[in-house]
Amino acid sequence: MNKYLTEVLVKVRLDNPHEPEFIQAVEEVLVSISEFISDNTKYLENGLLERIVEPEKVFLFRVPWIDRDGKVQVNKGYRVQFNSAIGPYKGGLRFHPTVNLSILKFLGFEQTFKNALTGLNLGGGKGGSNFDPSGKTDDEIMRFVQSFAIELSKHIGANIDVPAGDIGVGGREIGFLFGQYKRLRDEFSGVLTGKGLTHGGSLVRTEATGYGVVYMLTNVLEHFEETIVGKRVLVSGSGNVALYTIEKLIELGAKALTVSDSKGTLYFKNGITKELLEEIKELKFVKRGRLSEFKNKTGIEYIESKSPWDIKADIAIPCATENEISEEDAKTLVNNNVRYVLEGANMPTTSEGYEVFRKNNIVFVPGKAANAGGVAVSGLEMAQNSQRESWSFENVDMKLKSIMKNIHTQMVENGTTGSNVDYVKGANIAGFRKVADAMMAQGVV
């Protein structure tokens, strides 16, 4: 790796000693762009690299709220505004017990380059809380969200920072946030995305990340002169991303074999049908149940305490959470002849797992590219809000397909050596170049 990049990475490690996820994300980007930086030395000037790995602002605040028993609970709230070189900060809010500063800094850093890849003028940010929404009543969630919004509202705005949803933050939570923001600021603006259709939301937003992953997959397969029809696909997770990935896979003729949650995996030996998918949606979205509760049917196996990666397939799409594919999981996937891995979640593959894929010539598309569909449609929602318009499902879906195709083109252009395409390198160089050029044009800020 370039000597200067090595020095920057050493400094990141020293300055952030207890933030492994953030260090992992920075290292992955710096290693993959090293050769490009060595050939384009202008990016070594004016402390650009030191600035690009440091968030512009970080807010940490307490969130007091009252539970169903009248007891005061206190959680931590965060907003990391990482980079605004090409537009207002944009990135989701995550409510989950594992949320900490390292995870949000890594997500904000990744979001900066992901947003750049979309071609939309959006900066990078991320936020959330260590609040656990599972098992909470609607009233408890509303009280927590309204308290969270009181502090968050001081730092966001339609042209400043536009949060969206992420793990633990869906349409219900965004609705409560939007209502409280509107009440506090006395304005109706496109300050949050992922809103309901009754108050400025966009069609396709719910499906966008999952659909976008599959649109990316079709572009990748087409590049290698293959078709999606008949491909056997492992999908982890059972939230929006996973289930709408499966919906689009079914529509395009692939066989989705699995869904999973933190307790285990459901394996559909003959593939998930539209009817079975609707049953899973009912269980997860309406009843908020566990996959272990799914009715036992012929050809369906529940595998307790296991991820999907032991099952033979052609393609793997991890859609659950960061670092869910370990080195051993990656070796298992390789041994089971999986040839394509697309990240539906953010950084779901460990560094060691990625090395296994790289050494075995697995086609690997990183999350900042593969799952960019969600933020892409969030950007389209912002455009509709600005214009006071609502676009048709077909119009938004067409734009999403175009954005994912353009991201694939950028990766091929920036990551091809001979006949080999390094999608990680291509995504990181394309995203870095756009952000870095904007930062250089704006001076040392």
UniProtKB/TrEMBL annotation:
Residues 202-443 form the Glutamate/phenylalanine/leucine/valine/L-tryptophan dehydrogenase C-terminal domain. Substrate binds at K90, Q111, K114, G165, S378. InterPro entries: Aminoacid_DH-like_N_sf, Glu/Leu/Phe/Val/Trp_DH, Glu/Leu/Phe/Val/Trp_DH_C, Glu/Leu/Phe/Val/Trp_DH_dimer, Glu/Leu/Phe/Val_DH_AS, Glu_DH, Glu_Leu_Phe_Val_DH, NAD(P)-bd_dom_sf. Coiled coil: none annotated. The record marks D166 as: Important for catalysis. GO terms for molecular function: glutamate dehydrogenase (NADP+) activity; nucleotide binding. NAD(+) binds at T209, N240. GO terms for cellular component: cytosol. The keyword Zinc-finger does not apply. It comes from the Bacteria. SMART domains: ELFV_dehydrog. GO terms for biological process: glutamate biosynthetic process. It holds the Pfam family ELFV_dehydrog_N. The active site is at K126. Keywords: NAD, Nucleotide-binding, Oxidoreductase. Homohexamer. Belongs to the Glu/Leu/Phe/Val dehydrogenases family. This is Glutamate dehydrogenase.
